[in-house]
Amino acid sequence: MDYKITETGVKVEGVTDLDLAQTLDCGQSFRWADTGDGFRGIAFNREVLMRLDGNTLYIDNTTAEDFEKIWMPYLDLELDYGAIRTEISRLHPVLAEAAQYAPGIRILRQEPWEALCTFIISQNNNIKRIKGIVARLCESFGEPVGSGFSFPEAERLAALEAEDLTPLRAGFRAKYIIDAARKISSGEVNLEMCRTADYDEARAELMKIKGVGKKVADCTLLFGLHRVEAFPVDVWMKRAMEKLFPDMTPESFGEYAGIAQQYIFHYSRMHPELFEDN
DNA sequence: GCCCAGGTATAAA
DNA sequence: TTTATACATGGG
Q: How far is the CA of A98 from the C1' of C9 (A)?
């Protein structure tokens, strides 16, 4: 991947299959804000501003080393999404249409602990409130980074009690966050093992945590550990599968099922009329 | 007030 | 094994 150093960060030309709104504000990460002049966010203890002008990506407030080690992987720039879209579009005509509808979605490579924690918070919740709880979590227990705060380490939260999270207004999820933090920091649950373990084994490892079921485990595997075969099924996806893909199962979408899932998710949210009964 | 939100734990059938 | 209900909170 070719890039240039600028006065404020890096400039990457020839970036295809990327739409920052579709990728950063589609419910896989809850830490990016549309400033009107790009997306500002904090990940891996660094704050950056990302902006896309045609096929040129600008990342402000970063270095060559951070671009290569953090942001290039974060945006998954080395994976050929165009080729994957072509491949998975052959699986089903409706999937082909969905993939064409939002071709700029990519699967982020987020920090595994942040993905786990934010998707615990996401259960039976809406995106606006999830973002609020996550913001208060970082403000309360993270470290200052740029204009905001880092995502708090599991070790920091492991030392707390559920009542200490009252200011987050996370409701019944507070005790789940603490249980997750303790099992991650103690090593009882090993996130790195989940990168390479058999899929069922990785899922079972994550489900040792209270409040982590199939959906949260799959989202953690997909968005935090880049297990792109993971196909999270929520209420929307269940309806989408029944109405649009009655002849498919999550497994039948293959090794890039998670990418297919994101296309389908976005497409179905934008076309609620597909689910109206008649 | 009522319903729902990118679910899960728990109890009961 | 499958199906119902509570769970905290806030916006529509």
A: 33
Backbone angles phi, psi at A27, to 5 degrees: 95, 15
pLDDT at A189 over 60: yes
Task: Report helix, strand or coil for A220.
Answer: helix
CA-based nearest residue to A148, from A134, A158, A130? A134
Query: Closest CA to C9 C1' — which residue?
Result: A171
Contact predicate A12/A3, CB 8 Å: yes
Evaluate if the CB of A275 falls below 7 Å from strand C: no
- Residue A221 is encoded by which pair of tokens? 């595997």
**Protein-to-nucleotide distance from the CA of A209 to the C1' of B11, whole angstroms:** 20
SS3 A20: helix
How do residues A223-270 score in pLDDT, each as one tens digit?
999 999 999 999 889 989 999 999 999 999 999 999 999 999 999 988
Handedness of CA A54, A256, A223, A196 (dihedral sign): negative
For residues A19 and A52, the answer to whether their CB atoms sit within 8 Å is yes
A210-CA/B2-C1' distance, Å: 30
Give, in Å, how far the C1' of C8 lies from the CA of A141. Answer: 21
Amino acid identity of A155? E
Give mean pLDDT, residues A207-215: 98
Nearest nt to A123, CA vs C1'? B7
Output the CA–CA distances (angstroms, integers) from residue A190 to A153, A181, A201, A206, in the order listed: 15, 11, 11, 8
List the A211 CA – C6 C1' distance (angstroms).
14
Give me the A residues in range 98-137 that sit within 7 A (CB) of strand C.
124-126, 128-129
Q: Which domains does chain A have, with CATH numbers?
A: 2-78 (3.30.310.260), 112-223 (1.10.340.30), 235-275 (no CATH)
CA-CA distance, A3 to A131, in Å (whole number)?
Answer: 32
